[in-house]
Amino acid sequence: MNTLRILGGIVIDSVERLGRASMFLYEVITGSWTLLRRFYLVVQQVYAVGVLTLLIILVSGLFVGMVLGLQGYNTLVKFGSANSLGLLVALSLVRELGPVVTALLFAGRAGSALTAEIGLMKATEQLAGMEMMAVNPVTRVIAPRFLGGVIAMPLLAALFSAIGVLGGHLIGVGLLGVDAGAFWSQMQNGVDFQDDILNGVIKSVVFGVVVSGIAVFEGYDAVPTSEGVASATNRTVVYSSLAVLGLDFILTALTLGEV
Amino acid sequence: MINRKSLELWVGLFVAAGILALAMLAFKVGNLTTADVVDGYQVKANFDNVGGLKVKAAVTVAGVRVGRVTGIAFDSNKYQAIVTMDIDGQYKNIPVDSTANILTSGLLGDQYIGVEPGGEETYLKDGDTILRTQSALVLEKLVGQVIFNKASETEPPK
Q1: pLDDT score, position A238
Q2: Degrees to nearest 5, angle at CA B141 with B78 and B63
Q3: Is A147 within 8 Å of A45 (Cβ atoms)?
Q4: How many helices (H) and strands (E) does chain A have?
Q5: What is the pLDDT confidence band of residue B50, given thresholds at 50, 70 and 90?
Q6: N or C: more exposed end of chain B, with fewer CB within 10 A?
Q7: CA distance readout (Å), B25 to A96, B73, B76
């Protein structure tokens, strides 16, 4: 009887949390419109969330591309189709690895920072102080951070894919001796703008909304103690990684239309 | 806190680099530049077997892409496949007695339509049908034929 009660409690708690999160997200999005007049707040957050994440994205993009080049070459050469290396590298990056790995890194680097920042603001009662001064903290603090993340994420994913393709080129053409012309022409023939690149962009926008949404909500909803902020940061990374990977499957299934 | 000017500079650089990367993906990696047929005309062709031909496959003359396959349908009266293709408007003089073949690029490549021009002086118009066609080579049938021929060679009929 008691276990049943606990189970019910867990379910009610999580549904309540989900409802709060949705209401909060709605409030953030409707609050975003007023930001058009004070766009500098968003620009500041694009810097904090995007520019400062650039280094990790570029370095990992380069290495992921180089690894893809090496691994792909070793597999393709068995079938005598090493010329398709460019296609393999570009498709895997643009469709999958670009958006997903960027979103995971983004959650780890920018999402956790957002949660910690907002959680600490709450713990030190800065948010409550704003409300006392009749400043809505959702539009002044939360919405710019959310919007900054949504703007930065697709750009980061595009940079990741682009530098990854260059990394694949570096290894494939420079080191392993794949013909440069075949590398690029196979890639251009095989990669479709609408089916592949636009899909990757859509994925990265969705991931941007999800990761930034989870990050700001966890921060806003954190228990205002140092322990609460720590566990909220932890939850941000775990939840957004899970959400990104799960959503990635759903989006891929939808766009490929095979399921 | 970083000052406003350099912050704006960094964000501007970041956004520009992101858009540049996207543009590079679109033009260099993808095939946006040759994506669509400009004011083309539609031509149909009936095939006995289209094999692995897909919508959006290339239509080529002398190896140069002149159009794309826009539709593949099944004609249940003739039991044939009707392939609709869009030919680029700048290639107006494809003779009506041209032959449409379904070819494969490379051993494992995609299938595409290769048009071999005929000798007529009248040219294909919008809505015309190419009458001479050659179906896709189905590898299994080919292998079957070879085996069948070999068998009949080694074992002469009594």
Answers
A1: 94
A2: 80
A3: yes
A4: 12, 0
A5: confident
A6: C
A7: 14, 33, 42
For chain A, domain boundaries: 38-256
Is the CB of residue A113 less than 8 Å away from at least one CB of chain B? no
ipTM confidence? 0.71
A62–B contact, CB cutoff 8 A: no
* Residues of chain A found within 8 Å of residue B21, distances taken between Cβ atoms: 155, 158-159, 161-163
Tens digits of per-residue pLDDT, B97-149? 889 988 887 666 678 888 888 888 888 888 888 888 888 777 788 888 888 88
- Measured between CB atoms, which of B10, B11, B21 is closest to A159? B21
Residue B9 amino acid letter: L
pTM of the model: 0.73
Partner residue opposite A197 with nearest CB, options B14, B30, B56 = B30
Q: What are φ and ψ of residue B64, in 5° steps?
A: -100, 135
How far apart are the CA of B35 and the nearest CA of chain A, in angstroms? 8
Band the pLDDT of B64: cuts 50, 70, 90.
Answer: confident
Contacts of B35 (CB under 8 A, 6+ apart): A193
Give the pLDDT confidence of A112-136 residue by residue, as tens digits.
999 999 999 999 989 889 889 988 8
Measure the CA–CA gap between B26 and A199, rounded to whole angstroms.
12
- A120's CB contacts (< 8 A; 6+ apart) are A229
As a whole number of Å, the CA-based R_g of chain B is 24
Q: Please report which confidence band the pLDDT of residue B37 belongs to, taking 50, 70 and 90 as the band edges.
A: low
Residues of A in contact with B7 (CB under 8 A): 43-44, 47
Identify all chain B residues contacting A81, using CB atoms and an 8 Å cutoff.
Answer: 108
Mean residue pLDDT of chain B comes to 82
Query: For chain A, what's the residue count?
Result: 259
Contact list in B for residue A50 (CB cut-off 8 A) is 11, 14
- Select from B10, B31, B108 the Cβ nearest to the Cβ of A192: B31
CB atoms within 10 A of CB A53: 23
